[in-house]
Specification:
Elements lengths: L6 H10 L1 E4 L5 H12 L11 H8 L3 H8 L10 E5 L19 H4 L21 H9 L36 E6 L12 E2 L3 H16 L12 E2 L7 E2 L4 H9 L6 E2 L5 E2 L3 E2 L7 E5 L4 E2 L10 E8 L34 H10 L9 H7 L13
Antiparallel strand pairs: 1-10, 2-12, 3-10, 3-12, 4-9, 4-11, 5-6, 7-8
Helix pairs in contact: 2-3, 7-8
Bound molecules: fe (ii) ion.
Fe (ii) ion binds next to loops.
Length: 376
């Protein structure tokens, strides 16, 4: 098993934004991880389980990612992505639509690093301003008004920086290690839009150029959709991005009952021991596990290139490591502007991929630049 991506694999990673590495993790490590999950006590958190973090720390994933991206902190925690089997259900998802009404196995395509709060299950009424206040006030800190201290029920800050100019947390790469058979669509796979990373990066860059506000509440990206069926859906991807994602696919998109089209995701088909690496900017979603013979088991790691903030240790689960897990403010030395660095990383997505620079230089000129100015 090669401990680095081949040239061809790196070219594919550059263009698609993700790559599946077959057998990146040994059967022994897979078996040990599955046994640990099976042995979990009711209510026990498996996030710090060494049997799970070893899927990266003791496997070929570490040398492969170090070669492609650069140095990173060995994850000490893991996001245990277990999805039980289920059919379509009636609840409202964060998009503000009923699960059963969303196409593509109830997808919730999103940009990573966004504030989310529990979706209202009764249709929210009142003026948009009232609904906005209700939504942002429903997190663990309650109604404290609109500020960067607000965090969502997912613990992600409403804004990363005190000046409220950056509403996206960021890291460098996802690693997704598969622990069960996911070779048939509809088993709860993680799904992505190949090439969508360029669209999202292009949009972040366009926002930054407009007025320096990046993410929801920046140009072209309202935070909530008050026309969604539950009266307040999270806008996880702005319309201009959705349109370009839909255009990447030659097949017509599926719609919700209100006629709204949604970009079609590609399910990442994997077998136990396979690992997917995606760039942070990749739009992605979980899906419903309708056809699996067991719960879907993806171990998800959020990795940041060490050079972004050499003095900070990243655990592997936070999507907003410029702040503490619960939105705490971290200390930075004089001259270190973490939110400026992160905006730069969001808008120059390959700069943190040290081992991809030859490919980036060779392949970028072959691509049409992504532009938004003429669309919005
Ligand atoms: Fe996500």
């Amino acid at each position: 098993m090669a401990a680095a991506l081949s040239h061809e694999q790196k070219v594919r990673l550059f263009h698609d934004g993700y790559i599946v590495i077959k057998n990146a993790v040994s059967q022994h490590l897979v078996d040990r991880a599955r046994a640990r999950i099976k042995a979990a006590k009711r209510g026990e958190s498996l996030a710090p389980a060494v049997e799970l973090t070893d899927l990266v720390n003791d496997s070929n994933v570490t040398p492969i990612l170090t070669d492609a991206m650069g140095a990173f902190d060995p994850p000490s925690l893991v996001h245990v992505g277990v999805t039980k089997q289920s059919g379509p259900r009636d609840h409202f998802t964060p998009l503000g639509y009923r699960d059963r009404d969303l196409p593509y196995f109830g997808h919730g395509m999103h940009a990573e690093g966004l504030f989310t709060t529990t979706p209202p299950q009764e249709t929210l009424t009142g003026s948009p301003a009232e609904r906005y206040a209700k939504m942002i006030g429903s997190g663990p800190r309650g109604d404290i008004g609109r500020s960067a201290d607000v965090i969502g029920t997912n613990t992600y800050p409403l804004f990363q920086d005190p000046d409220m100019t950056l509403a996206v947390g960021s890291f460098t790469a996802f690693v997704i290690v598969c622990l069960n058979d996911q070779m048939i669509e509809g088993c709860g796979q993680t799904a992505v839009v190949p090439g969508g990373h360029r669209v999202l990066e292009g949009f972040y860059r366009w926002q930054d150029e407009q007025n320096g506000n990046v993410g929801p509440e920046g140009p072209g990206w309202p935070r909530f959709d008050y026309t969604a069926p539950n009266g307040a859906g999270h806008i996880y991807l702005p319309d201009a991005v959705q349109e370009k994602l839909i255009a990447l696919d030659p097949n017509p998109p599926e719609t919700t009952p209100d006629g709204k089209p949604w970009p079609r995701p590609t399910q990442i088909l994997m077998e136990p021991g396979d690992a997917a690496i995606t760039i942070f900017q990749m739009p992605h979603t979980g899906t419903r596990n309708e056809f699996g013979t067991e719960s879907r088991k993806n171990m998800i790691f959020r990795i940041r290139n060490k050079k972004r903030q050499p003095d900070k240790v990243v655990t592997g689960v936070s999507d907003h490591p410029d702040r503490g897990m619960m939105g705490e403010w971290l200390d930075y030395e004089n001259g270190n502007e973490p939110f400026v660095r992160s905006k730069h990383a969001l808008t120059h997505m390959w700069e943190e991929w040290d081992g991809m620079q030859d490919i980036v230089a060779a392949e970028t000129p072959k691509l049409e630049p992504i532009r938004f100015g003429d669309v919005l």
